[in-house]
Amino acid sequence: MNVQHHHWIFTVPHELLGLWRYNREWFQEQMYLAVSKTLKQLSRAGGHLGAQPGYLLALHTWGRNLSEHPHIHCLITHGGVSDSGKWLSPKRAIMFPVKVMRRLFRGKFLAATKQALANNALTFPPDQQTTELMNLSNKLGRIDWQVYACAPYAHGVGVAKYLARYMRGGAINNKQLIAVKNNMITFKYKSHQTKKTERQQVSLPNFTRMVLKHLPLKGKPTIRYYGIYHPTVVEKLNVARAQCKQAQFITAQLPTWQAMLNKLGIRLICPICGVTERIAAAPLK
Length: 285
Known about the structure:
The protein has helices at residues 17-22, 24-44, 98-118, 130-140, 157-169, 204-212, 234-243, 257-263; strands spanning 5-11, 54-62, 68-77, 80-81, 87-88, 146-149, 177-181, 184-190, 197-203, 223-227. By secondary structure, the protein is an alpha+beta fold. The chain has two domains: 5-171 and 214-252, no CATH class; 172-212. The strands form three sheets. The chain has a five-stranded antiparallel beta sheet with strand order 6-1-3-2-10, sandwiched between helices. A three-stranded antiparallel beta sheet has the order 7-8-9. The chain has a two-stranded antiparallel ribbon with strand order 4-5. The longest helix has 21 residues, at 24-44. The radius of gyration is 24 Å and the shape is globular. The chain starts with a strand and ends in a 22-residue tail after the last helix.
């Protein structure tokens, strides 16, 4: 959508890292659910928007120094499509109140955690059991969680490109690597605290572990689409695009294997009929 977009960031407290390490698949799914349910609830509320926005959520698990820092980036339209098909813009500069987003995000995640604990559905860290985790959940329910929410950008293209580069590059890139010597590796990063470029030296085995723990889980997409950006609601997206004088969005069709081979100048002809295109496979031995 060629409209203003917000870039928001939802972060879980580091006190939950033990739970994250032993239940990563469950944990990251609950992060997506807590954020998406928060945004859906506020979007539906007439006092805030009363319409369906489009947004994507991207999971990042690392800090700049390869630390464990699970958080979700959100790129969301500044407005949405009402049930009647009209594009509605919010009255606020920041579409939803930050304090409300913090409270809802916290509440939804902790509610899921307590339910999972009650169902014995979690693997416990060595130093934490049900009682300790319940006490921790109660403690975290009384503090503010980190939700960064800035005013909207003129469009979402710049933020989308930033997220794409960030996701494609992974937790570290080659330019950050400075030296490898005596089984030690030195890398650089820009510190959030000092705003300066700093160096860190670790052993090669530790560095390998630091990188590998940020690999995405198999079969679990790290970028997910919601609202009018979800692939199943293209019709509603095009209603909004028409009001912004944008061309209709057409879902890309994947080419057939025949078309791909033809594009490469390869034609596989059946040796029997000499006409039909087919894939030939050698028999297993």
